[in-house]
Structure formats: C-alpha cells, structure tokens
Write a structure and sequence with these properties.
Number of strands: 2
Radius of gyration: 17 Å
Number of helices: 7
Strand order of the largest sheet: 1-2
Number of domains: 1
Strand content: under 5%
Shape: globular
Largest sheet: 2 strands, antiparallel
Length: about 170
C-alpha cells in the first residue's frame, strides 16, 4: 500500500481503534484468568483485520480466486458459488450472533463486542466472495468515501465500546 484512499484510511483507523481497545482490555484482564478470554480472541482477530487492511490481503485473495476461476473456465459462472457462499456466511453470522446473545445475555458488553466483530468479519468475507450485488452496495459512494467504510466504523465502534463495557463490568 503506497498511499491509502480515504476509504482505506478510514478502515485502517477503525481497525486500529478496535485493536487498541481490545489490547487494552486484554492487558487489564491478563492476571484475572488463565483461560482464553474475550479480550484475547478479539485482540487477535482485530489485529489480523488491521494487518489485512494495511496489506489488502482480502483483495489479493479475491484476485487470486478470480484468476483461478478464469484459468478453470468458470469465471462467468462463479455466481453459482458466490450465492451459496453468501448464504452460508449469513447463516454463520446469524448463528454466531444468536449464540452470543444467548450465551452472554447478562454481559451486554460481550454481546456488543461479538456483534461488532461479526460485522467486521462478515464485511471481510463479503469482499473476498465479491458478488456483484453485494459489491454494488459496499462500494457505493457515501460522500467522499464508500459505504463499506461506514460498516468498518460501526463494527470497530461496537467492538471497542463493547469490550470496554465488558471489561468494566468484569472488574466490579
């Protein structure tokens, strides 16, 4: 990445905010438990998203998949794979969200954190799958940027707010 676009800069800032927030929560919780905790998982996931945003890994992966589809002669029919992939992604995102709401029903911060992370990871997967119908929504203009920047910000803010709420509740 030489000079990031405004959209990518927003994504970098959003991922940096979420990674930093989760890292702070992890640092504060480090002596409370030996098991893998929500701050650990979210810090690792958000850091991976930050690295991806900086290096455009998801877009390179998409380009690799497109090249392979072209070489295999199935590029024109790729929507037969993309639609089911999006359907499965929706089921997984819904199941993770429903499970989080049920499992952490007394920890609103944890639910908010997981929902924010689900938004971020779903956007990542949607960019890799890259169905034209979803691309037209994600990459439509929103002022001087694109819609996807708003999704990145919402995901990062939900993750950040949720992890701080959850860590504050756990400190009491």
């Amino acid at each position: 990445m030489l000079m990031p676009s405004l959209t990518q800069s927003i994504g970098l800032c959003a991922d940096l905010l979420a990674t930093t927030s989760c890292g702070i929560a992890w640092f504060r919780a480090r002596n409370r438990s030996r098991k893998i905790s929500l701050p650990v998982v979210t810090t690792v996931a958000e850091f991976a998203l930050l690295i991806d945003m900086a290096l455009d890994i998801r877009l390179r992966l998409h380009a690799l998949i497109d090249r392979e589809a072209t070489l295999q002669g199935v590029y024109a029919r790729r929507h037969w794979i993309q639609w089911p992939a999006l359907f499965v992604l929706g089921i997984i995102a819904g199941a993770v969200t429903a499970t989080a709401v049920w499992r952490f029903r007394r920890r609103i911060g944890a639910v908010l954190t997981i929902c924010g992370l689900v938004v971020s990871l779903t956007c990542w997967c949607m960019e890799v799958i890259s169905l034209h119908a979803t691309d037209s929504l994600l990459y439509s203009p929103l002022g001087k940027t694109m819609n996807i920047a708003a999704f990145w910000v919402v995901g990062a803010l939900a993750t950040s707010a949720g992890i701080f709420i959850d860590s504050a509740d756990n400190r009491r």
